[in-house]
Structure formats: C-alpha cells, structure tokens
Specification:
- The complex is a heterodimer of chains A (about 300) and B (about 425).
- Chain A has 11 helices and 4 strands, in the order ααααβββααααβααα.
- Chain A has helices spanning about 1-35, 45-60, 65-90, 95-120, 145-170, 170-180, 185-190, 195-220, 225-240, 245-265, 270-285; strands at about 125-130, 135-140, 145, 220.
- In chain A, the strands form 2 sheets. In chain A, strands 1-4 form a two-stranded antiparallel ribbon. In chain A, strands 2-3 form a two-stranded antiparallel sheet.
- The radius of gyration of chain A is 19 Å and the shape is globular.
- Chain B is α/β, with parallel strands linked by helices.
- Chain B folds into 2 domains: about 40-170 and about 310-390, Response regulator (Rossmann fold, 3-Layer(aba) Sandwich), CATH 3.40.50; about 175-305 and about 400-420, Response regulator (Rossmann fold, 3-Layer(aba) Sandwich).
- Chain B has helices at about 5-30, 55-75, 100-110, 125-130, 175-190, 205-220, 240-245, 260-270, 290, 315-325, 335-350, 360-375, and strands spanning about 40-50, 80, 85-95, 115-120, 150, 165-170, 195-200, 225-230, 250-255, 275-280, 300-305, 380, 385-390, 395, 400-405, 405-415, 415-420.
- In chain B, strands 8-7-9-10-11-15-16-17 form an 8-stranded mixed β-sheet, sandwiched between helices. Chain B has a 6-stranded mixed β-sheet with strand order 2-3-1-4-5-6, sandwiched between helices. Chain B has a 3-stranded antiparallel β-sheet with strand order 12-13-14, with no helix packed on it.
- The longest helix of chain B is centred in the N-terminal third of the chain and has 28 residues, at about 5-30.
- The chains are: A mainly alpha (about 300), B alpha/beta (about 425).
C-alpha cells in the first residue's frame, strides 16, 4: 500500500510534467481555431521541424538549450508562415473546410518529403537528441522530479505567460481578440486582418516548434513521425480542455498527460488510449464545450 | 466576382488541384516497368521499409540484396537457355505500412511482372502482403496471386502459413528464445522473477511473446512476475519501468524493437532498474541501440542468424562492402540475410530451368516456387548448411549476440559455446 501511494503520486506528477508538452501543442491548435474556426492539421509539421531544428542546434552546432529553443521556435514559426501563405491565405474566401483540407495535404506532403530526405541523410529510425538535463532531478522523499520534465514545465509556463501578456497587453493581442469575435468588424475598425492572422500562424507554429524541441529532448530522440503523434495528442488536448480556449488547452494537455500515465499505472497500458477516449467522451457529454471552454449558443 | 462566386471558384480550384495531384501520384505509382523479357533481364522485386519506421532494418536488408545482385550481374548474370541474363532489382518502399505494402506487392506481381518478390521486414506488412497470394498451390478455386515471395526477416512465428507461395529465411524464433533462456539460466541462474515487456502494436513482438517467450516460461512453470506493454512510438516509459522494478525483476524479456527499446532502457537507467539478465529479439539488432541507448542497453542478449565476426571469409568481405557503401561500423544480421536470400533465389532460378519469356511467366514462377520449397543442404556464404522445412522456413543454426562495451559482440556459437 505504501509503494502504491508513492507510485501513484509519482505517476501523477510525471503525467502533469509530461503533459505540459501536450499543452504547448494544443495551444498552437487552439490559437488558430479561436481566430479562424479551422483545424490547422499541418500543425504537427511545426512540431517535427522544431524538433529537428532543435536537434541540429544541439548536436551539430552544440548550442545551449535556451538558444536551441529559440531556433526551434523560429523554425516552427517559418513553417507557420508557409501554412498561412499556402493553405490559408489563397483559400480564405472558400468554404471553411477547404483550408482545413489544404492543411491536411500540406501535412502529408511535407511529412513524406521530410521522411525521404531524413532517410537519405540518417539511415536510422531515430537520431539522438542531446538532453543536457538527463540524470538531473529533485528528490522529495521517495518522489523524484525529473530535471528535464521540470525544465519542460518551466518553459511551457514561461511561454504561456508570454502568450497572455501578448494577448491581453499588446495591440496585436487586442487585434487578435477582435478578429476572434468577428473578422468583418475587425476590418471595419481598421485592423489589418491578414497581417494579424499571419502573426497568429507564426505564433501558434512557434509554440509547436518549442513543443517539438521539448518532446525530442525529454525522449532523447528525434524522429520524422513526431508531428503525426503530436497532432493526435494536441487535438485531443484542445478538445478535452475546450476548443479555442488557451486555459482549456493547458488543462487539456496536463489532463491528458496524467490520464495516460495513470491509466497505464492503475489499469493496463493496453487500455491507455481507450481510457483517454472514454474520458473525452464523458467530458463532452457533460460539458460539450470542454473542461474550460465557453458554451456556444445553439445553432438551431 | 461576387463573394459567393469567389468562394465557389476557390473551392473548385482547390478540388481541381487536389485531383490533378492525386492523378499524378496515381500515374507515377502505377507506371510499370518495361517487360523484363524485352530488355533481357530477370525481374526481382524488393519491398522493404526504406524510410520512416523500420528504416533501421529495411535499409541494411535492401543493401544486402543490392550487393548480391551487383555480384551476380558482375559475373554476367544467371544462365537461362544457354544465355547469361542479368537480374534487375525493382525496389519499393513500404514504410512499414501494411496498406502500402499490399499495393506494392500487387504492383510487383502484376505491373512489374516480377519472377520473385522479396520482402518485407515487418511481419504485419508481410502478413498483409501475403494475404494476396493463393493459399494452396493448384487450387483452381483460389484466384490469389501466384508468385513466389520470400521474406528475409519477418520473424512472426508461423507467418509463412498464410500461403504456400510464401517462404522465409529468418530463423525459428521459438527455438531461438528457448535456447537463449536455457543458456542464460545455465550460466547466470537461478533467477527469481521473470518479467516481460511487449511492444503491443507490433505483430512480431506480440507473436514472439505469445509463441516463443510464454511457452518457454510455461515449460518452466514460471508465471511472469510483471508484464507491461508499450507502443513503438511512445516517449514516456516511467510507469512500465517502475512496475518492472517493483516486481524485483531479475530476468527481463524485452519483446520490442529498437524504437521503444532505447527509450525504455534510458528510463530504466534513470530509475536504477538493472536486472541481472535482459534478453531481447532481433528488434534490438540496430546501431541505434548503442548509439542512442549508450550505457543503458549494455548487457542485452539477443539471437542472430549471421554476425560479422563469423570466420567465413565471404562474411568479412560482405561486412567490408557494406561498410564501404554506408560508412557504418556495424553490419546487422539483416545485411547477411538479404545477401544470402538473393543467393538462395538465384540457386532456385538456376535449378528451375526457367525460360524467362512473357508467355512462360506463370510456369517460371511455379518452377521457382517448387525449387525454393526443395532447398536442401544449401551451402551459405556464412559457412552453414541451410534447409527449407515443411513450413517453408529456412532452418539455420542459432547464435547469440551481447551488447558489450558499446558494441554488438558475438556471444555464443553452437560449436564454441560462450565466447566471453
């Protein structure tokens, strides 16, 4: 019983810490959903590109962690810019499903091309991602907080704070909030909607890049399929927490982290994803808007 | 243009672009090779995961095949009706995806008109591909594909049972693991707590646990102290490793591939979980195990079919050739199996006495199939004698490898026993 309590606590803490990366991916999704009401399915590409940019900065260039994160965010942001220019901007007047399908195509195309390039250069399923915090940690009694997980949570927290400052304390944030309410009103008020949306794509993708770096670092591995996995986890987190809500993305990501590890611990790994899906199902029945989302007016 | 017209225009344009892209991809995918009879070659197909998950196994296996083909062609090819005919190897990348493998298999059999299809690696893909084959030869009611296919690696026990056109040169996994457990018990036992970790979304690892490890434990009246699962793409293994540690595991069975093994063993190192013995399957035979796993993978023992330390000179030649072409320092067994597999196919083609003409393709395929089924006392380049058994599996001796000092060292051989 003693060990059970210890392991339960340890698992919950690990889940919370690990879930912060899911939250970062979910923030990227929720920013675009909140502003455009489209699912940016190419968001996983930003995670993958951020992961590899970070890996190269750390293992080839030997740059420190904090520089690597910035590079990963810049690389992710560049991909976000491309998504805006290729998948959204030329199709902005089309039905809302069209840009979403375009992001799906962009995701598949870039991932396939990347895998070919990757396989040509590396001849490996995965490559090493240096983890400067590996082996470090804080021991509180029998509970150990992994150093790299603490760093992950700290970076995620810093990025969330920065996002809040941007959204609630800057003109760009004000413009984003206005556009989130209504694009046409934004236009009438003189907001450069196109530019603000480009900034939103850049921002959301930069968060994806940071998530990619942290996911790679904590696993000590970089692999070309990281984006696909991140899409599933990120979408799940966003919907669980509440689509379009930044606090929802955070709650959803952390909840998913805890849910995954606890279901493996308490039941069986075989049911991990089934339990997570069941939880999502229950949440959506009780609160269709997600844990922290706002209830939308009925359409009919 | 009105807003509605614009919207319709963009929608139509997007659909049109998507259609053109899809049509281009389809055209690229379905374009067949020129008939092999016209350009004087024998067509063999090679389906492997050359990119994405499985690259670590597929690329070495493919290179082994390429080295073999280059060698055969450098000697002029295979003699058909008194004339030397070269081999053309058509390479396809299944990315370890069953749906992709099935489409490629059909393409190789129908569009490319391959005499033999070699591949693939992951049992889940091989099993799916072979599902297209005629189950029993000469069954007039079964319109399945009739082309001999040989996998040089798929390890899932009984996988050739899918079709009588299916062959394998990989090894007898239940026998491999029974031997490994027996030898480890004799040398390092007794052990108190046997536990297993299985890659639950990978057919070979699940089959290895069910058909090889579990029966081996049952024969010893052992119930696993702990059993955990994970997926090959998982990134956190903390819960599973903690359970294994709590169970005081001293004999750890790692039925999983490198993708998960590295992450799991790194977590084991973090948590200080170091069992007395760790055995694994061929999924651990990849350079990443030592490059990425570093100290954490030290001591893992797994079976092998061919090792670069074998004394046969041709093995050293193959290893040197592989290193020259890839700049790698270690040659995994998949290179040797690929090379050897092509040589087995060559032998079958020679003995079959094929005509290699368009009108004889079906007959030629059948003759080659029968010769593959009849392989007996074939002298491998690696020094051992090979035989095809009734299940269409090549029977071969078992060797063990141990990860030691950051290298894959040959650890046990049938003739010399433990080497260190």
């Amino acid at each position: 019983m003693y060990f059970f309590a210890i392991d339960l606590t340890q698992t919950t803490i690990d889940g919370l810490l690990f879930g912060s990366t899911y939250a970062l991916v979910a923030i990227g999704f929720t920013l675009i959903w909140g502003l455009l009401r489209i699912l940016n399915l190419a968001h996983g590409v930003t995670v993958m590109v951020g992961m590899f940019a970070g890996m190269l900065s750390a293992s080839v260039a030997g740059l420190p962690f904090y520089v690597g994160i910035v590079i990963a965010m810049a690389a992710g942001g560049f991909v976000g810019f491309l998504i805006d220019r290729i998948c959204y901007r030329p199709l902005r007047n089309a039905h809302e499903l069209v840009p979403m399908i375009a992001t799906l195509g962009f995701w598949i195309l870039i991932e396939e091309v990347f895998i070919k390039i990757y396989s040509h250069f590396w001849f490996r399923d995965y490559v090493a991602f240096p983890n400067p915090f590996d082996g470090m940690g804080i021991d509180i009694g029998q509970i150990r907080l992994r150093g790299d997980y603490i760093v992950t949570l700290a970076v995620a927290a810093l990025l969330v704070i920065a996002l809040y400052i941007l959204i609630y304390r800057t003109r760009l944030g004000l413009a984003m909030r206005m556009i989130a309410e209504d694009h046409d009103i934004g236009n009438l008020m003189g907001v450069p909607v196109g530019k603000v949306l480009t900034a939103a794509f850049l921002l959301s993708a930069a968060y994806g890049g940071a998530a990619g770096y942290l996911l790679g670092m904590t696993a000590n591995l970089a692999g070309p399929y990281a984006g696909s996995q991140a899409v599933v986890k990120g979408l799940f987190s966003m919907i669980l927490g509440g689509a379009g809500s930044i606090p929802g993305a955070i709650v959803g990501g952390l909840s998913l982290g805890v849910l995954e590890l606890l279901s493996s611990f308490l039941f069986s790994f075989s049911y991990r994803d089934a339990i997570a899906m069941l939880a999502l199902f229950v949440v959506l029945i009780v609160r269709p808007q997600g844990i922290a989302g706002k209830r939308l007016p009925d359409r009919i | 243009m009105s807003r509605t017209q614009k919207s319709n225009f963009y929608t139509v344009r997007a659909i049109a672009l998507a259609t053109v892209a899809a049509a281009s991809l389809t055209a690229a995918f379905t374009t067949g090779a020129t008939a092999f009879q016209d350009d004087g070659t024998i067509i063999l197909c090679s389906i492997e995961p050359l990119s994405g998950i499985g690259t670590s196994f597929g690329q070495p296996n493919y290179l082994g095949k390429v080295i073999a083909i280059d060698e055969i062609n450098a000697e002029g090819g295979i003699e058909i009706d008194g004339k030397k005919v070269k081999i053309k190897l058509i390479s396809e990348d299944d990315q370890a995806k069953p749906d992709q493998g099935v489409a490629l298999f059909r393409k190789c059999a129908e569009s490319e008109k391959a005499l033999v299809i070699t591949g693939t690696q992951y049992s889940r893909v091989t099993e799916s591909m072979w599902g297209l084959l005629q189950k029993k030869v000469d069954d007039p009611n079964d319109k399945g594909l009739q082309v001999p296919s040989m996998s040089f690696l798929s390890m899932k026990a009984g996988v050739t049972g899918v079709s009588e056109w299916a062959f394998r040169n990989a090894g007898d996994e239940p026998a491999q693991h029974e031997l490994a457990i027996k030898l480890m018990e004799e040398k390092f036992g007794p052990f108190k707590n046997y536990s297993g970790a299985v890659e639950a979304n990978e057919g070979h690892s699940v089959a290895a646990w069910k058909a090889a490890y579990t029966p081996a434990l049952e024969r010893r009246n052992i119930k696993p102290a702990e059993y955990v699962e994970w997926y090959e793409t998982d990134r956190d293994f903390s819960v599973q490793i903690r359970k294994l540690k709590r169970a005081e595991t001293d004999f750890f069975i790692l039925s999983s591939h490198l993708q998960a093994n590295v992450g799991a063993m790194l977590e084991a190192q973090r948590q200080g979980f170091k069992p007395k013995m760790i055995i694994s399957h061929i999924g651990s035979d990849a350079a990443e195990m030592v490059e990425l796993g570093k100290q954490s993978t030290e001591g893992i023992v797994f079976p092998t079919a061919i090792h670069m330390a074998f004394p046969a000179p041709k093995v050293k030649w193959l290893a040197d050739e592989y290193k020259k072409r890839t700049k790698e320092t270690y040659m995994p067994q998949f290179v040797g199996l690929g090379y050897e597999g092509i040589m087995l196919v060559k032998e079958a083609i020679i003995k079959a006495g094929i005509k290699n003409r368009p009108e004889t393709l079906a007959e030629d395929r059948r003759k080659v199939r029968d010769q593959l089924a009849a392989i007996k006392d074939y002298k491998s380049f690696a020094g051992m004698s090979l035989n095809m058994n009734a299940n269409r599996d090549i029977v071969r001796p078992i060797y063990l490898v141990k990860i030691t000092g950051g290298d894959f060292k040959l650890y046990w051989t049938p003739d010399k026993g433990f080497l260190f």
